């Protein structure tokens, strides 16, 4: 339409005038000054026109029946100026909790999850080292890259694994990270990721056949939304090899100190602000949303969409909210029954998100809660932190609406190899020494280049003494390196931190130790990373922590997705399937009563499901739903109104939630209810009270001492009782004295201590 073309004409005219004015600027200084002023004006006009074009095109594409600033949908009315909705009729009420897992590193490679895909780059230099999805395709090229990716797609997620997850009874949904390049290829992705969508189609069919839902998560976007490798491309990466004068051959790089994210525009690290907005990248992401909707809107397995994963905390908030809003309208136009789940941009506070998209159906906020980056602490501290999330989630649900914990794990340290990047680490991490295990055999088969990892090479032990051919096994700073370097043993390139395979071993999470001091609980921090079997408390601690986290994330919010469904290395702290195998997470945990009350000790208050007291229609709908499930006649609900209706709803909602939350029920009822926290603590004599932690704290020395004292007490008590009986019970005394055992003892009782005194047996007739 003319409305669409007008801004584009302005941009084209602007471009033409800039070119013509640039020619004139070559001739005179005056012309140059005038040209600069005109150029500045035209750039401002062009930028405004670009933004106008971007927004008008999006809103025009999703508008059904525009009225002023409103967009009419089947279930609600969207207000574009305020980014809110009215006539909230949920297309798909969020009445059941999500208990899901992420299918990480399948479509978006992450070196720490599937290191066998990246071992081939160990020992490489600046021209042949890949550290993320983008550089993987760039270095290998489309043909070899696609060959390796197809082998990976075929083996990392299989129908058998999906069947195992479904049969566990602990999973009802899958979060699928995808890249925008899969739907709108660009750069090195062209040709490299061909065929990916065929595997996505298979996954949807596998999930549907087993009653599982799938949430599409746009995990990587053009320009990177956070600068992490999990976005597909690490941003502001810099090779520093040229800065190393000694020794020759050492390949180094830096990333964390200069990380940036270019999806939203150009970021100034000095001011910590964006100096421009990249509307082209945003448009590309919105078009990706449209492509995903077009492809899968009719598939019954699809739960919904997450428009972007983990935009970093410096992302301009207004631009991000506008992107979320426009993506939401795209989804609701063609896929009205999808959920729309938005990440909090690492800003999980009610001031930021409270009231955003108020009244809009089927949207939720995603937050990621990890303990792996916390400082080392006692298990009690980790327990309290896990259960303490209840209150934060409840407050956000009251201010915004449904909350889903889209990522969490059981890791309490930063030890997993390459967790913070290929051959790199954050400054100061890991905080404690890590356990090492044999690096896993490649899951896709030994034909994968670079596998298995070389057992004869150290990690970041970086040189060989050329005189004695001695391999040094300590770590040192670059300035300590000798000028002679045997590069054949290197497993670089090396970042500013340490993490990588060493002699065929890979670092994984530490073990937990049984504690001697229940008050401090810090023995595990001073202990070796691998606990002796008789002192290993990892199973107990992880089981308790898992129950508390699941209780907090699903008992209060609308559910969770564990990160990840599996890992190549033996790290059950990051692998849901291994955690199930170890018994840390119960199979069939949707009905596990131990999870329901796992935070009993840590809870500071009670949570009650109450009516939001907003609209009577949604309240009545929620009540009818709850009563219908219970098989109770709900005809009386229609006669209620005002406070009488809301008071009755409080009773129905709270009763239903208390009885069914263990089965996965949420306090939602189509948006008519929310959890409220009351300052009332549990009593220790509650019939379901159980101290989950008491048996996890084991004083080994105290246990031994207790055993000795008990044995000693029994012996002393027995002897004392015997003597008392001999002294005061003549019949018992005579019987003992006449026993054959005592007679033999007394007969042999003579002194050999050097005294001349002899003891002889008294004849029986003289008693």
From TrEMBL:
Domain Glycoside hydrolase family per the UniProt entry, residue ranges: 151-410
Gene Ontology cellular component list: cell surface; extracellular region
InterPro entries linked: GH, Glyco_hydro_5, Glycosyl_hydrolase_5
Name of the protein described by the UniProt record: Glycoside hydrolase family 5 domain-containing protein
Keywords from the UniProt entry: Glycosidase, Hydrolase, Membrane, Transmembrane, Transmembrane helix
Organism: Ditylum brightwellii
Pfam families, sorted: Cellulase
Highest taxon of the lineage: Eukaryota
């Amino acid at each position: 339409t003319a409305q669409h073309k007008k801004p584009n004409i302005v941009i084209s005219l602007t471009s033409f005038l800039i070119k013509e004015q640039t020619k004139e600027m070559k001739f005179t200084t005056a012309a140059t000054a005038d040209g600069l002023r005109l150029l500045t004006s035209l750039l401002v006009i062009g930028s405004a026109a670009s933004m106008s074009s971007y927004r008008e095109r999006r809103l025009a594409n999703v508008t059904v029946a525009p009225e002023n600033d409103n967009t009419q949908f089947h279930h609600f009315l969207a207000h574009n100026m305020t980014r809110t909705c009215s006539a909230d009729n949920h297309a798909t009420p969020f009445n059941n909790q999500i208990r899901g897992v992420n299918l990480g590193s399948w479509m978006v490679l992450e070196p720490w999850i599937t290191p066998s895909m990246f071992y081939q780059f160990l020992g490489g230099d600046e021209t042949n080292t890949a550290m993320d999805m983008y550089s993987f395709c760039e270095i290998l090229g489309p043909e070899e890259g696609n060959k390796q990716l197809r082998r990976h797609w075929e083996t990392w997620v299989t129908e058998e694994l999906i069947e195992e997850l479904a049969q566990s009874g602990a999973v009802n949904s899958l979060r699928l990270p995808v890249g925008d390049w899969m739907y709108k290829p660009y750069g090195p992705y062209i040709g490299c990721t061909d065929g990916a969508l065929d595997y996505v189609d298979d996954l949807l069919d596998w999930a549907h056949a087993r009653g599982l839902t799938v949430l599409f998560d746009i995990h990587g976007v053009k320009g990177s939304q956070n600068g992490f490798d999990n976005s597909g491309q690490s941003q502001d990466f810099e090779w520093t090899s040229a800065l190393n004068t000694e020794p020759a051959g050492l390949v180094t790089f830096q990333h964390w100190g200069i990380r940036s994210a270019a999806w939203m525009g150009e970021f100034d690290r000095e001011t910590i602000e964006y100096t421009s907005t990249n509307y082209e990248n945003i448009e590309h992401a919105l078009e990706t949303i449209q492509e995903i909707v077009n492809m899968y809107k009719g598939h019954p397995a699809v739960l919904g969409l997450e428009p972007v994963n983990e935009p970093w905390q410096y992302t301009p908030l207004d631009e991000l909210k506008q992107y979320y809003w426009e993506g939401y309208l795209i989804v609701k136009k063609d896929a009205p029954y999808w959920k729309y789940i938005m990440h909090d941009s690492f800003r999980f506070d009610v001031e930021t998100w409270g009231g955003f998209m108020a009244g809009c159906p089927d949207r939720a906020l995603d937050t990621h809660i990890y303990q792996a980056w916390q400082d080392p602490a006692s298990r009690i501290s980790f327990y309290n932190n896990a259960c303490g999330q209840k209150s934060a989630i409840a407050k956000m649900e009251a201010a915004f609406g449904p909350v889903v914990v889209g990522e969490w794990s059981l890791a309490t340290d930063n030890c997993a190899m390459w967790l913070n990047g290929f051959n790199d680490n954050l400054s100061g991490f890991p905080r404690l020494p890590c356990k090492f295990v044999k690096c896993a055999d490649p899951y896709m088969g030994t034909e994968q280049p670079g596998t298995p990892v070389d057992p004869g090479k150290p990690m970041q032990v970086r040189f060989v003494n050329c005189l004695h051919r001695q391999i040094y096994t300590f770590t040192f700073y670059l300035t300590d390196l000798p000028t002679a370097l045997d590069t054949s043993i290197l497993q670089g390139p090396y970042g500013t931190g340490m993490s990588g395979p060493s002699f065929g071993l890979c670092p994984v999470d530490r073990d937990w130790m049984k504690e001697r001091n229940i008050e401090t609980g810090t023995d595990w921090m001073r202990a070796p990373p691998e606990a002796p079997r008789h002192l290993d408390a990892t199973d107990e601690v992880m089981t308790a922590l898992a129950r508390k986290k699941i209780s907090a994330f699903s008992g209060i919010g609308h559910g969770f997705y564990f990160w990840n469904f599996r890992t190549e290395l033996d790290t059950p702290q990051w692998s849901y399937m291994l955690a199930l195998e170890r018994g840390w997470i119960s199979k069939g945990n949707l009905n596990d009563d131990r999870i329901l009350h796992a935070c009993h000790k840590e809870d500071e208050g009670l949570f009650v499901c109450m009516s939001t007291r907003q609209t009577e229609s949604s309240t009545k709908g929620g009540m009818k739903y709850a009563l219908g499930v219970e098989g109770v006649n709900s005809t009386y609900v229609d006669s209620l109104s005002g406070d009488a209706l809301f008071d009755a709803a409080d009773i129905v909602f709270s009763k239903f939630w208390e009885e069914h939350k263990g089965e996965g029920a949420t306090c939602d009822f189509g948006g008519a209810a929310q959890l409220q926290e009351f300052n009332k603590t549990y009593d220790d004599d509650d019939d379901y009270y159980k101290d989950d932690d008491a048996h996890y704290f084991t004083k080994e020395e105290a246990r031994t001492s207790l055993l000795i004292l008990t044995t000693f007490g029994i012996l002393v008590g027995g002897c004392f009782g015997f003597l008392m009986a001999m002294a005061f019970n003549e019949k018992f005394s005579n019987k003992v004295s006449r026993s054959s055992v005592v007679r033999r003892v007394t007969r042999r009782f003579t002194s050999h201590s050097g005294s001349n005194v002899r003891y002889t047996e008294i004849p029986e007739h003289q008693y």
